[in-house]
Design goal:
The complex is a heterodimer of chains A (380) and B (271).
Chain A: H1 3-10, H2 12-50, E1 54-57, H3 75-80, E2 85-100, E3 103-112, E4 125-126, E5 135-139, E6 149-152, E7 157-165, E8 176-180, H4 181-189, H5 193-201, E9 214-219, H6 225-236, E10 239-242, H7 243-254, H8 256-287, H9 289-297, H10 302-331, H11 343-370
Parallel strand pairs in A: 3-8, 5-7
Antiparallel strand pairs in A: 1-9, 1-10, 2-3, 2-9, 4-7, 5-8, 6-7
Chain B: E1 13-22, E2 29-39, E3 44-48, H1 55-62, E4 70-75, E5 78-81, H2 90-97, E6 98-101, H3 113-123, H4 128-141, H5 156-167, E7 174-178, H6 186-203, E8 206-210, E9 222-227, E10 230-236, H7 264-267
Parallel strand pairs in B: 3-8, 3-9, 6-7, 7-8
Antiparallel strand pairs in B: 1-2, 1-4, 4-5, 9-10
Helix pairs in contact in B: 3-4, 3-5, 5-6
Classes of the chains: A alpha+beta (380), B alpha/beta (271).
Chain lengths: 380, 271
């Protein structure tokens, strides 16, 4: 006879409420894990979508996502003519803010050359850029609609949304947007006429508006990324970062602090959950001490009593895990950032829950094993 | 079985010079002092005395929950304590040879009446289906219709009947009862004693009952008085020789006990 099951059956409401409470805690742990994975996916979504083999950036910098990189626009032509290079595209990156329905909308904007590496992939609606100016493709998470016009830049030029992507956000969680390189350069580097006049009056040359942040390079199938990088560094005095390195910069430098923050928070949550589960199992056991004494008195071996406590702990933990998972699956859509629940993370959390349940039942088991059967004889 | 030859049947409970003390030196308390006690198959023996006289310690000692400090103890012919060594598998012994009835029924609150009884059987190795069937038969024997009721849903008398059914579930040869009638009114108390007598007679079990309840004193074959950890005296009641193999033949002087042929419902009449 399964005593654990019988006890839970008899105390259904108490067990259900306890399980729900622990389930919420485990749900938060799952959510944190999902946010962690989501941040990673977000951060890598742009570089991975570009399918570049090399990122050519300003020397001694770590690329456009880790730190500012500014190189002349003709770099793209220089790189394109190098042996082993199949295609090259100049790109710029910047964060812009616009307004939609009186609500501020932040976008991480990429400027690219139509027909060259750097454009959006996998549109879910509309089409890519077809005009040289005032068109924009945005991610659907921005809330912008197809055909909508939004003001951008210091002159609030109106850009029309011509295409939508899904799941493309920056490492900071801002939706991505794509405009032509010319528009992006104007948005990033354009100096208002009054400022230009002041610069000229001061004897300084007007700032250039043709710089770019990076050149994306796709190599010939037979070309070696290492050799092409070395050639770019030697002959063009530029840094060429392989795609894998660029991803590493992103995960190691850009979102590392957030990962550490989430990891620490998860650790605290797991510890709190462990303490609560331990306390609950201990309390459930203490409530049954007289029954346990009676069981021992009538001859139940310790393994029956230990089994009852451990099974209850496991039932509590596993049910709470299931409740937490269902809860988070139901509400993850309303989180402002991507919550990506990975099977591998779920298995790890499940393993932790099982370990916590075993660990949490130790105190209860200890109390139960120490119960003197004679306590069953005590009055009352 | 030759009931005219009592000497061939070993006592169910046999204590010789058993003592039990707690603490040492100045804190030493002698809970039991040189207890010699024998209970034969079929006997129902009462144990009375003021609070703190050692009744419960004696019950715990016979129930293999408390280890004696000295003396010898045999249960059902098997040596349990010989003055130095205590038998090891006492849990198993409690499970198969001793049935215990508590003052407060001590039924497991999360098991229903049937499960409370079948659990004791399953612990002793009986299969689930058989245990359940036998538990239901026992409850039927005790005229209990509320087989699926939980202890909290049973009256004191019904719960005590379930507790008695649990105590005899594994056909123990020794039944120890600690104030089994304390929570009951006198009618139910007499019914419980009817049950214990019936079990002693039918199962040839030795029944030892700790009680303060004077209304049931006359129901015992022997009534032992304790004081300060010692046996102070013993009143031997008359009963037919055929029902008490180890006892001297005397005319029976107690309340009529329903015969085996009258059935279980007569035993629990008044409930």
């Amino acid at each position: 006879m399964n005593l654990a099951l019988r006890d839970m059956r008899r105390n259904k409401l108490r067990f259900a409420l306890t399980t729900f409470g622990v389930g919420m805690l485990i749900g938060v742990v799952i959510a944190m894990s999902g946010i962690y994975e989501g941040a990673l996916t977000d951060a890598l979504s742009l570089p991975r979508s570009l399918q570049a083999d090399l990122w050519v950036v300003q020397p001694r910098t770590f690329g456009p996502f880790a730190e500012p990189s500014r190189i002349p626009r003709d770099t793209r032509e220089l790189i394109r003519r190098m042996p082993g290079v199949a295609a090259a595209g100049a790109v710029t990156y910047q964060t812009v803010q616009t307004v939609s329905q009186a609500r501020p909308v932040r976008l991480f904007l990429e400027g690219y050359e139509i027909g060259r590496p750097g454009g959006p992939r996998s549109l879910i609606a509309g089409h890519g850029l077809t005009e040289s100016h005032y068109q924009i493709v945005v991610d659907a998470s921005s809330g912008l609609k197809l055909g909508q016009t939004v003001p951008l830049g210091p002159y609030r030029d109106l850009y029309t949304v011509v295409g939508l992507t899904r799941g493309m956000v920056s490492s900071g969680g801002d939706p991505l947007g794509w405009v032509t390189l010319l528009d992006a350069q104007a948005l990033q580097f354009a100096v208002p006429p009054a400022l230009q006049r002041r610069e000229r009056a001061s004897g300084r040359t007007a700032p250039t508006t043709t710089d770019i942040n990076a050149v994306l390079v796709r190599l010939e199938p037979a070309a070696s990324p290492v050799e092409v990088s070395r050639d770019i560094a030697r002959w063009k005095h530029l840094a060429a970062v392989p795609e894998t390195e660029e991803e590493r910069y992103l995960t190691s430098f850009v979102i590392q602090k957030m990962q550490q923050q989430l990891g620490l928070f998860m650790g605290i949550l797991v510890t709190v959950s462990a303490v609560i589960i331990t306390l609950i199992i201990y309390t459930l056991t203490m409530d049954k001490l007289r029954s346990i004494a009676t069981l021992k008195f009538i001859g139940a071996p310790d393994r029956v009593i230990i089994g009852m406590i451990v099974q209850q702990a496991l039932a509590l933990g596993l049910s709470a895990f299931a409740i937490g998972l269902v809860l988070i699956e139901e509400v993850k859509g309303i989180f402002p950032r991507r919550v990506q629940i990975e099977p591998r993370d779920l298995l790890i959390i499940l393993g932790i829950v099982i370990l916590v349940c075993f660990g949490g039942s130790v105190l209860g088991v200890r109390a139960a094993v120490q119960v003197n059967p004679a306590e069953a004889l005590a009055g009352g | 079985m030759d009931e005219s030859a009592p000497s061939t049947r070993p006592p169910r409970i046999e204590l010789r010079g058993v003592s039990k003390h707690f603490g040492r030196a100045e804190t030493r308390v002698d809970a039991l002092v040189d207890i010699t006690l024998t209970v034969h198959p079929g006997e129902v023996v009462g144990l009375r005395g003021p609070s703190g006289c050692g009744k419960s310690t004696l019950l715990n000692t016979i129930g293999c929950v408390t280890e004696p400090s000295s003396g010898c103890m045999q249960l059902d012919g098997e040596p349990i304590f010989d003055g130095r060594y205590l038998r090891r598998d006492l849990r198993r012994l409690r499970l198969t040879k001793i049935g215990f009835i508590f003052q407060t029924h001590n039924l497991l609150p999360f098991l229903n009446a049937t499960e409370n009884i079948s659990e004791a059987m399953e612990l002793a190795g009986t299969g689930h289906a058989e245990a359940r069937e036998r538990a239901e038969a026992l409850l039927d024997y005790f005229d209990m219709q509320q087989m699926r009721a939980y202890p909290s849903e049973l009256s004191g008398g019904m719960a005590q009947r379930v507790a008695i059914a649990r105590a005899i579930a594994n056909n123990p040869h020794i039944i120890l009862a600690d104030e089994p009638t304390a929570p009951l009114d006198s009618a139910r108390a007499q019914a419980v004693m009817n049950l214990l007598e019936r079990i002693a007679r039918d199962k040839e079990a030795a029944v030892l009952v700790v009680t303060h309840d004077e209304s049931i004193f006359h129901r015992f074959d022997r009534l032992i008085s304790m004081r300060d950890g010692k046996i102070e005296g013993e009143e031997v009641r008359a009963r037919p020789a055929s029902t008490a193999p180890g006892m001297p033949e005397q005319p029976r002087e107690r309340m009529a006990v329903p015969s085996a042929e009258r059935g279980a419902k007569d035993l629990v009449a008044g409930h």
